[in-house]
Amino acid sequence: MLDVVPSTAHRLLAALCYDGFAVQDRERRYRAGPELAPHEEMSYPPNQLRGAIWPSIETLNKTLDETIQVWVLQGPRVRYIDGIESTQSLSVRTAMWDLVPAYCSAGGKALLATLSNAELESIHAGGLPPWRSSRITSLQSLKRHLVTVRQNGYALNLEEAAQGIAGIAACVKDPGGRAVAGISVAIPSIRFNRKKIPDYVEALRDAVATAEADLGKPARGAAAHAS
Fold first, then answer.
1. How far is it, in rounded angstroms, from Cα 85 to Cα 82?
2. Which parts of the sequence belong to the IclR-ED domain (predicted)?
3. How far is CA 186 from CA 25, 34, 77, 91, 121, in A?
């Protein structure tokens, strides 16, 4: 045991929760977080997930000619695992970030929207990870925002992760209904047009349907398209 006073122990545990190394359950007991065992919480190994999703994001990229990114949830953050860049001269790079707060990205919001309020509270026990351009400032405002995401069936990010970039995303689920990845379309804000949202959503839903159908097939190698 650590020889520290309770107030210090609470600060240490809050820091561990903030970084994803611990979570607090409904009884306010602490347990190991997703950073200590991230792959155990994933329904599929990363390479299998990449292989299954690749055909759908390849088609989505060709359909929209925008950058496509694939994200997985790790505690209160999302990790980039794959993507394809747009061929347009002005485009978003596929791997601008490796690990960002889920609540300020389209892919992260799509994934968070599949969680219950209790699960949201658990993974954000240490508070929302700070991100200077985010418009969501509290867990309560996040919960309210996710109600809209669930109703719409997709998530939007309007310069919340980075200035000059908009995103729209939907969630891929496994055959059991568990969310396994978020697919996002990243668009330079100067080119983003709200009137085209229905077109983005339709293409995204087609990609999600293809990815979900492919998840039950034999694993494909991802080495050929590793980013």
1. 10
2. 28-217
3. 34, 26, 18, 8, 28
